[in-house]
C-alpha cells in the first residue's frame, strides 16, 4: 500500500505558517537526525524562503554519529553554516541553538526576537520547547501530531519562541522516503502497513547495521540474508508465534519498528548523504 498521511489539521497549520512568517525573525527547522532529507518538508522551502532558517538535526542521541557528522558537513557546506545537531532534552544545547540563531539576525534590539520552531510531526519540536522553557508547556510523546495548536515560550534576552504543529506535505511521492518517515514514527500507524515498512527497514539494516542486529537479537550464523529471514529470526527470538509455532508476521514487524524507534537496536541512521547524491554521468 502507498503511504499517504495529511489529516485536515495540517492544512490549517499550512495556512497558519503562511500568515505568521512575515512577523518571524528566524525559523528553526527541526529535522530528525536519523533521516534529515526525508524529514525535510519541501513546503517550508516555499513558505519560509524570505526568512533566515537554521536546520536543527534533533535526536542525535538516536542517530549514527558517523552519519550525523557527514550530514553536518553536507548541510553546512550547502547552507553556509546554518545547521546544528542537538539532543532536544539537553537544555544547554537547545538554548545555544536559539541564542546563536538570534545573533545572526538584524533587528531592532528594543523589541523581542521572534523565533519559530517548525518541522514535520514527531521530530521533537515540543521537547525542544519544554527544554527552553524549563518546564512542560507542550505535550510530547511517541505518537505523531500531538501538538495541534501554537505554543509560545518567553525566554531571557528578549526572545520569544513559537512552536507549531507538525506538518507533512499532501502527497508523498517518494515512497522510500515515506517508509523512512513511517519507520521513524513521523507517520500515524493507521496510515502505514507495519509488515511493509518492516520489510523495507530490515533490508536497509541488513546492508548497513549487521553488527547491531547480531548484538540486539543474539543472531548467530547462518546470519539472515533477506528481510523476511531477519524478521522471522527476530519474531522467533521475541516469541511472536501463533498456535503451532507459526510466525505472527504483524507482531514481529512491530517489534522491529518499535525497537528501532526507541534506539534499542543501537544508534541507527536511516539515510546518509551519499544516498541522495546524483551520480556523475559516465
Automatic annotation (TrEMBL):
Protein name from the UniProt record: Ribosome biogenesis GTPase A
Family membership: Belongs to the TRAFAC class YlqF/YawG GTPase family. MTG1 subfamily.
Native source species: Desulfocicer vacuolatum DSM 3385
PROSITE patterns in alphabetical order: G_CP
Pfam families cross-referenced by the UniProt entry: MMR_HSR1
Record's keyword terms, sorted: Cytoplasm, GTP-binding, Nucleotide-binding
CP-type G domain location: 13-170
Cytoplasm recorded as keyword: yes
Claim: Zinc is one of the keywords in the record: no
Residues involved in GTP binding: 58-61, 122-127, 166
Function: Required for a late step of 50S ribosomal subunit assembly. Has GTPase activity.
Top-rank taxon: Bacteria
Gene Ontology CC terms: cytoplasm
One annotated GO molecular function: GTPase activity
CDD domains associated with the record: YlqF
Taxonomic classification: Bacteria, Pseudomonadati, Thermodesulfobacteriota, Desulfobacteria, Desulfobacterales
Stored InterPro entries: G_CP_dom (IPR030378), GTP-bd (IPR006073), GTP-bd_ortho_bundle_sf (IPR023179), GTP-bd_ribosome_bgen (IPR019991), GTPase_MTG1 (IPR016478), P-loop_NTPase (IPR027417)
GO biological process, any: translation
Compartmental location: Cytoplasm
SUPFAM superfamilies: P-loop containing nucleoside triphosphate hydrolases (SSF52540)
Amino acid at each position: 500500500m502507498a503511504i499517504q498521511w495529511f489529516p485536515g489539521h495540517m492544512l490549517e497549520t499550512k495556512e497558519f505558517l503562511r500568515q505568521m512568517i512575515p512577523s518571524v525573525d528566524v525559523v528553526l527547522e527541526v529535522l530528525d537526525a536519523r533521516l534529515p532529507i526525508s524529514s525535510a518538508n519541501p513546503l517550508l522551502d516555499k513558505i519560509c524562503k524570505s526568512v533566515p532558517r537554521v536546520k536543527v538535526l534533533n535526536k542525535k542521541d538516536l542517530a549514527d554519529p558517523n552519519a550525523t557528522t557527514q550530514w553536518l558537513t553536507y548541510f553546512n557546506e550547502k547552507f553556509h553554516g546554518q545547521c546544528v545537531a542537538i539532543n532536544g532534552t539537553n537544555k544547554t544545547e537547545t538554548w545555544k541553538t536559539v541564542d546563536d540563531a538570534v545573533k545572526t539576525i538584524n533587528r531592532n534590539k528594543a523589541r523581542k526576537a521572534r523565533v519559530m520552531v517548525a518541522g514535520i510531526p514527531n521530530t521533537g519540536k515540543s521537547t525542544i520547547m519544554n527544554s527552553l522553557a524549563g518546564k512542560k508547556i507542550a505535550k510530547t510523546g511517541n505518537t505523531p501530531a500531538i501538538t495541534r495548536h501554537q505554543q509560545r515560550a518567553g525566554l531571557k534576552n528578549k526572545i520569544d519562541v513559537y512552536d507549531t504543529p507538525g506538518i507533512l506535505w499532501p502527497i508523498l511521492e517518494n515512497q522510500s522516503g515515506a517508509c523512512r518517515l513511517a519507520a521513524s514514527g513521523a507517520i500515524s500507524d493507521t496510515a502505514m502497513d507495519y509488515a511493509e515498512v518492516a520489510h523495507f527497514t530490515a533490508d536497509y539494516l541488513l546492508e548497513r547495521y549487521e553488527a547491531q542486529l547480531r548484538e540486539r537479537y543474539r543472531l548467530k550464523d547462518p546470519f539472515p540474508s533477506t528481510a523476511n529471514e531477519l524478521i522471522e529470526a527476530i519474531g522467533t527470538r521475541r516469541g511472536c508465534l501463533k498456535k503451532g509455532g507459526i510466525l505472527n508476521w504483524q507482531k514481529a514487524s512491530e517489534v522491529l519498528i518499535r525497537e528501532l524507534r526507541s534506539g534499542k537496536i543501537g544508534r541507527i541512521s536511516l539515510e546518509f548523504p551519499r544516498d541522495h547524491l546524483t551520480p556523475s554521468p559516465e
